[in-house]
Amino acid sequence: MDESVRNYLDHYGVSDATRRFLAKPQKMFIDGAWVDSGNGVTFDVFEPSTGGRITSAPSGTTEDLDQAVAAARRQFDGGEWRRLKPLERERLLHRLADLIETHGNELAEIEAVDMGKSVSFARDIDIQGTVDTFRYFAGWPSKLHGRIVEPSIPGNYLAYTRKEPLGVVAAIVPWNFPLQTMAWKLAAALAAGCTVIVKPAELTSLSTLRFAELVQEAGIPDGVVNIVTGRGSVIGAAMSTHPGIDKVTFTGSTPVGKDVGRAAVGSLKHVTLELGGKSPVLVLDDADLPSAALAVANGVFFNSGQVCDAGTRVYVQRAVHDAFLDELVKVTRTLKIAPGLDRDCYIGPMVSAQQKAVVAGYIEAGRREGAELVHGGASLDGPGHFIEPTIFAHCKPEMRIVREEIFGPVLVTSPFDTLDEAVFLANDTPFGLAAAIYSNDLARVHGLIPRLHAGSVYVNAHSTIDPSMPFGGFKDSGFGKDLGPEQLDYLMETKAVWITLP
Ligand code: NAP
Ligand code: MG
Q1: Model confidence pLDDT, tens digit, residues 122-136
Q2: What residue ranges do the domains of the chain occupy?
Q3: Closest CA to 459 of 471, 475, 477, 447
Q4: How far apart are CA 199 and CA 239, in angstroms?
Q5: 3-275 belongs to which homologous superfamily?
Q6: Among 13, 41, 114, 269, which residue carries the largest CB count within 10 Å?
Q7: Is the CB of residue 258 below 6 angstroms from any atom belonging to ligand 1?
Q8: Domain covering 280-467: architecture
Q9: Ligand 2 ion local residues (Cβ < 5 A)
Q10: pLDDT by residue (tens digit) across 313-333?
């Protein structure tokens, strides 16, 4: 561990448990064993607020993946896991949720140090969301069943359907909500009775590895959950074609998602793709402007803008455009830029130097293309990867900052006149993850909801997410759903059974 990271942990009084975990070289979790990669290669893990090195983790090989698949297959194809009664599965998932809750502060610290996010948000959103997701899906195993039907064809039959788990599921996870996104994929898969192999993002593997220790402590049988760390282009790509894997569930960027989808369909795997976004926000002229400004700022700057459904394109009805912009800038000025471990951090660093460069490049492009910079815009010097929350006004539809996903704290706004124009602007994007409306006019709100091409529509709020509600995009934001009972449909097969009766 670099001196700079050690000083950082000291300065913010990080717990001994977290310190011990972070100090050790990490291993992968395959078939209940903690292992190095087959060829001994590792990669370095960095802390984004200081830029310092934390530790190393194994760079898994395709042979390591083969072992993880073999373990997951053994458990699925008649192993102990497959024979567990539904209530037994529920008990194990509840135990795991309890353990995550017990170790919540430690997991939040690990997430804040590894990813750079605010430790307070990590505790209240990421970790609480993870606990809630496991609790929600823990209740499902005993409620999954088929139906008995009465056929009309001649003859006498007992005809019924069975719901059966799909098999071995590979989960490929991004770096922005490492533990929570993993939980979104894992909890439902385990509830359905599947077994799982997770590939965390290289930038943020640590919370998933600490989680695997809790999987073991909960008593989930060896081989049911496997974690293979390493490169997406190696492990993720191999998962997408591996003959022993039945389903790939991917969250990440649209270009990589398209590759994963093509490969998975080529080997006839089931596939769920949760991809990028450029979500529109419509502020109507009757909106409560101060509370809308607060919600819009949260909706784009939370997690330093590294949020897939961030409301990054804000269209404001012309009569209130300037007043709304004033409110928005006022709120944005109050957001504290600080290292992730600072309890009052709102804007933490970008996850990496590379991500900082990408975001800074978009800000530069916005300036060059003539967007009006009304707040922020600067990259801060120093070893940490900080960028100011940035607002551009009067943006044109063809500008890159309007069209492309930036994945940083950058907001673009422009005025609209009619609701038809607002709908056109909102839908003028290849993406379709989410959309938001700010208005108290029920007729206008309900008129707009069906016209927006987006997987989630938020009214007078942004990113309200709960395990009972499905999450997933339309268009280039992917297909399939995470969360809600809908997710289970993507993790189970339906078998039709016909019994000819005398
Ligand atoms: P990414 O580059 O697409 O990576 C996502 C995951 O895919 C990582 O684990 C990555 O591994 C792996 N990967 C990379 N190349 C691969 C390949 N050829 N085959 C298979 N897997 C591969 O995305 P990111 O930069 O981590 O995350 C940001 C993106 O995720 C944004 O576009 C964001 O909108 C999207 N996202 C979507 C949702 C949603 O629910 N819709 C949620 C969160 C984020 P490495 O880390 O080793 O490269
Ligand atoms: Mg890191």
Answers
A1: 999 999 999 999 999
A2: 3-275, 280-467
A3: 447
A4: 9
A5: Aldehyde Dehydrogenase; Chain A, domain 1 (3.40.605.10)
A6: 114
A7: no
A8: 3-Layer(aba) Sandwich (3.40)
A9: 46, 114, 203
A10: 999 999 999 999 999 999 999
